[in-house]
Amino acid sequence: MSLFDELYMAYSIKNAGYKLKCQSRIMDIFHLLIRETDFAGKPFSPKIEKVLGFMAEHRNVSHSVEELSRIAGLSPSHFRSLFKQTTGLSVNDYQIRSRLDQAKELLIGSDCNVTEAALAAGFTDIYYFSRLFKKKRA
Q1: Domain HTH araC/xylS-type spans what residues (predicted)?
Q2: Cβ-count burial 112-135 (b if 16+ within 10 Å, e if not)
């Protein structure tokens, strides 16, 4: 409600720069709405968001559910359930998709060959990577 109050006050008083302040408050309100529920109807979870940030920083490494659930401060079973509810994917599928995306970015945006991209994305078996890449159509 404080964002709405700030928006109302800025618009009512109309000090210098009020249009910019109003636009900023509207964007803040949109940001909060998007964080709460994305357009696919998936719920927002700060604990899962924290884990997703960790996974993004270390996406070329596979993480166990136990390790990720400790980071989130949840039991492994509750973590699995909340992760799937939030992302729409299992932890393993999410990690594979993230690593495939990283390899795809390397293949498109650099001079890496397939082997180099696969290794950089954390795949140690090039044949496994190739099968996954074709299967998932990254």
Answers
A1: 49-138
A2: beeeebbbbbbbeeeeebeebbee
Query: 10 with 51, same domain?
Result: no
95 and 29 part of one domain: no
The tens digit of pLDDT for each residue in 13-47 reads 999 989 999 999 899 888 877 766 554 556 668 89
Residue written as tokens 């290794």? Answer: 119
Number of structural domains in the chain: 2
**Residue 27 sits in the same domain as residue 81:** no
Element (H, E) at 136: helix 126-136
Q: How sure is the predictor about 138, in pLDDT bands with cuts at 50, 70 and 90?
A: very low
Based on the domain organization, do 89 and 132 belong to the same domain? yes
Exposure string of 53-82, with b = 16+ CB inside 10 Å and e = fewer, is: eebeeebeeebeeeebbeebebebeebbeb
Task: Check whether residue 59 and residue 108 sit in a common domain.
Answer: yes
Question: What is the C-alpha separation between 58 and 122, in angstroms, rounded?
Answer: 10
